[in-house]
Write a structure and sequence with these properties.
Blueprint: H1 5-15, E1 22-24, E2 27-32, E3 35-41, E4 45-49, E5 52-56, E6 59-64, H2 68-82
Antiparallel strand pairs: 1-2, 2-3, 3-6, 4-5
Length: 87
């Protein structure tokens, strides 16, 4: 994802539907009853494109107890809140 940690955490509440979450080491954990979502994030990296430098944070999602439709709905919302316009 072309984003640094500060921007990740700024957009995160809306992206997860304002659900409660906690941060443990390099993971964001959302717990709902018997279900959970774990979003692991990497250290910040820099991608160089000529003179341009872009921040990169890699994300890995782990779902437990969610149906495929629920996962797709979550990911659609998450992607929407991290989408950027281009031109």
């Amino acid at each position: 994802m072309g984003i640094d940690h500060a921007e990740l955490f700024r957009r995160l509440p809306a992206a997860v539907g304002f659900r409660d979450y906690r941060v443990v080491e390099d993971a964001i954990i959302l717990q709902e009853d018997h279900r959970s979502i774990e979003i692991r994030y990497s250290d910040e990296e820099i991608r160089r494109l000529g003179a341009m430098r872009l921040p990169i944070t890699r994300l890995e999602f782990r779902f437990a107890g969610y149906s495929e439709d629920e996962i797709n709905a979550f990911m659609s919302r998450f992607d929407l809140y991290f989408r950027r316009g281009g031109g």
